[in-house]
Write a structure and sequence with these properties.
By secondary structure, this protein is of the alpha/beta class. Among the domains are: 129 residues, Rossmann fold (3-Layer(aba) Sandwich); 120 residues, Transcription Regulator spoIIAA; 64 residues, OB fold (Dihydrolipoamide Acetyltransferase, E2P) (Beta Barrel). Helices cover 33% and strands 22% of the residues. It is built from twelve helices and 19 strands. The strands form four sheets. Strands 2-1-3-4-5-6 form a six-stranded parallel sheet, with helices on both faces. Helix 7 packs parallel to helix 8 and helix 11 runs parallel beside helix 12. The longest helix is centred in the last third of the chain and has 24 residues. It is globular, with a radius of gyration of 23 Å. It starts with 7 loop residues before the first strand and ends with a strand.
C-alpha cells in the first residue's frame, strides 16, 4: 500500500444532487491538499463511497456498492482502503462496521469538511472498524473547493442543508440535521466562481429551498437571492428545485416570471392531495392550498413547466384516497412527475401507523400513475412541436440519427426528459436554438435554427 500522500483516490457518489455536492467538496478538499483524484476505482488506492439512506432502494444501492468493493478487497487481487461516507454511514455506521470488516472507515455527513484529516489518518487506524459519526451540522461555503467535470455546463448550488419540516415519513432531519442556510453573500460568491469556470446553468437546491433564510437573523428572501443571481455575468439559466408547497411565495413566482435568466420551471413536490394523508405526512399544507398555489403559479408565470413528486402507498391511503390522487394528476397535467413508493423507515412516526399498504399494491398504484403521466407528458411534448427552444448541449448522442443530447429550459438534469438535436457543428456546453420537430412520452427532438 502506498503512503497516503502518494495515493490515488476515487469517489463514488450515490443518491441525490445534495449528496453529489458533498462528493465534489470532498474531492476538492482532497485535491487541494495535494492528493490525486482519479475517475476510476479499479486503479485507486483509496475508494470513498458517498452513500444515500433516504429510502429502501437507496439503501440497497449503497449496500450493493459497498459489498461489491468489500468482496473485491477480500479477494486480495489489489490492496486499497475502503471508506464509506454520507447518509448510510450516519444512520447505520456502527452496525455496518461489525458486519462489513473490509471497510476501513465509516464517516457521517457531518465529517465532509474533515475528509482530508480522516484520509491522512487512514494508515494510523489499527482497527478496521473505525466509525466517526458526529452531529450532522456541516454547511459548505464558497471557501470549500469543488471538483467539477471540465466539460460541465451546469452545476448544482446548495443554498442550505438539513431540514426542519419533520415530515412523518422522512429520516432527513436525523441524517442531515436541522435547516441551515448559507448567507446570500456567500451563495452569490460561489455563483460568480461557477460562472468564471464556464458554468452556464445554476440549479438551486436544498432539502427545502423555499424555507431558505428562515434560520438567519437577517431573514434573507429567496426571491431577492434569485434576482441578484440573475445579475451575474456568464450565467444564462437559473433553475429552482425542491420548492415546498407550504413555503413557496408570490414574490418567488414573480421573480421567476420577470427575469429572463430564471427558467420558467418549478419543482414543487406535493407528495399527495388528500387532506387526511397530507396531515398524516405532517406536510403542513392542505389539498386546496396546493391547488391554489399551482393555479397562481401558472397565472403569474407564462409557459411554466411544473414538476412534482408523489408518494403512493402511504399508510391509510385507501382506494378512494388513491383515486382522488389519480384524478388530481389527470386534472392538473404536470409537465414532469415522479412517483415514490412509500418506504417504511424505522425511527419515523409513519412507520408506527396502522393500515400499512402491501408492497405489490404500492407498486400497482405507482404504475397506474406513471402510465397516466406518460400520456399527459406525451400530449404536452407533442404540443411543443414547431416551437423554438433554447437547448443546453451536454454530450454526443448515442443515436445515429441525432448528433447531440441536451436539455431545454423545461428539462432538469437526471429527473426529466432530454432533447436530441441535429447539427454537427454544435459545441458541448453551448446554448443553441432548435426547432422541435418530434416528441415522445418524455423526450424532444430538434433541428438547429440559430446560435447565440
Amino acid at each position: 500500500m502506498k503512503k497516503i500522500k502518494q495515493s490515488k483516490i476515487h469517489i463514488i457518489s450515490l443518491g441525490c444532487s445534495k449528496n453529489l455536492i458533498d462528493s465534489e467538496v470532498m474531492g476538492g478538499l482532497l485535491n487541494k491538499s495535494g492528493l490525486q483524484m482519479i475517475d476510476r476505482n479499479d486503479s485507486a488506492d483509496i475508494v470513498i463511497v458517498n452513500t444515500c439512506a433516504f429510502i429502501n432502494p437507496a439503501k440497497e444501492e449503497s449496500l450493493e456498492e459497498i459489498l461489491t468493493l468489500a468482496a473485491e478487497k477480500k479477494k486480495g487481487n489489489r490492496q486499497f482502503k475502503l471508506v464509506v461516507a454520507g447518509c448510510l454511514a450516519q444512520r447505520y455506521g456502527k452496525e455496518l462496521s461489525a458486519q462489513i470488516p473490509e471497510v476501513d472507515l465509516f464517516i457521517g455527513t457531518g465529517e465532509v469538511g474533515n475528509i482530508v484529516r480522516h484520509i491522512n489518518k487512514l494508515d494510523e487506524i489499527k482497527s478496521r472498524r473505525a466509525v466517526i459519526i458526529s452531529k450532522p451540522d456541516f454547511l459548505m461555503t464558497s471557501q470549500h473547493p469543488r471538483i467539477l467535470t471540465p466539460t460541465m455546463a451546469s452545476a448544482y448550488l446548495k443554498i442550505s442543508d438539513g431540514c426542519s419540516n419533520c415530515c412523518s415519513y422522512c429520516v432527513i432531519p436525523s441524517l442531515r440535521g436541522r435547516a441551515r442556510s448559507r448567507t446570500p453573500k456567500d451563495i452569490l460568491r460561489e455563483a460568480q466562481m461557477l460562472a468564471k469556470k464556464g458554468i452556464k446553468e445554476i440549479i438551486i437546491i436544498g432539502q427545502d429551498t423555499t424555507a431558505y433564510g428562515r434560520d438567519l437573523k437577517s431573514r434573507p428572501k429567496l426571491a431577492i437571492l434569485l434576482k441578484d443571481m440573475a445579475q451575474i455575468q456568464g450565467i444564462k439559466w437559473i433553475r429552482l428545485l425542491y420548492a415546498h408547497p407550504a413555503h413557496i411565495t408570490t414574490d418567488v413566482m414573480e421573480a421567476i416570471a420577470t427575469n429572463e435568466k430564471i427558467c420558467r420551471y418549478i419543482d414543487l413536490p406535493i407528495q399527495h392531495i388528500d387532506d387526511t394523508i397530507l396531515s398524516a405526512m405532517n406536510r403542513k399544507v392542505a389539498g386546496v392550498k396546493i391547488k391554489d398555489i399551482i393555479a397562481q403559479a401558472r397565472q403569474i408565470i407564462p409557459d411554466l413547466a411544473l414538476r412534482t413528486s408523489l408518494i403512493v402507498g402511504f399508510p391509510g391511503e385507501t382506494s378512494k384516497r388513491f383515486e382522488k390522487l389519480m384524478d388530481f394528476v389527470r386534472e392538473t397535467k404536470f409537465d414532469h412527475l415522479g412517483v415514490f413508493i412509500y418506504s417504511r423507515e424505522e425511527g419515523t412516526d409513519a412507520a408506527q401507523l396502522k393500515s400499512q399498504i402491501p408492497e405489490k399494491e404500492k407498486e400497482r398504484r405507482r404504475d397506474l400513475i406513471m402510465t397516466e403521466q406518460a400520456a399527459i407528458s406525451h400530449a404536452i411534448n407533442t404540443g411543443l412541436i414547431g416551437s423554438i427552444q433554447e437547448v443546453l448541449i451536454e454530450e454526443k448522442s448515442d443515436r445515429q440519427d441525432f448528433d447531440f443530447v441536451g436539455r431545454c429550459r423545461r428539462q432538469a438534469p437526471e429527473i426529466d426528459g432530454i432533447t436530441y438535436v441535429k447539427g454537427t457543428h454544435t459545441k458541448i456546453g453551448s446554448i443553441v436554438k432548435y426547432k422541435i420537430t418530434a416528441a415522445d412520452d418524455y423526450d424532444l427532438f430538434g433541428e438547429m435554427v440559430g446560435r447565440h
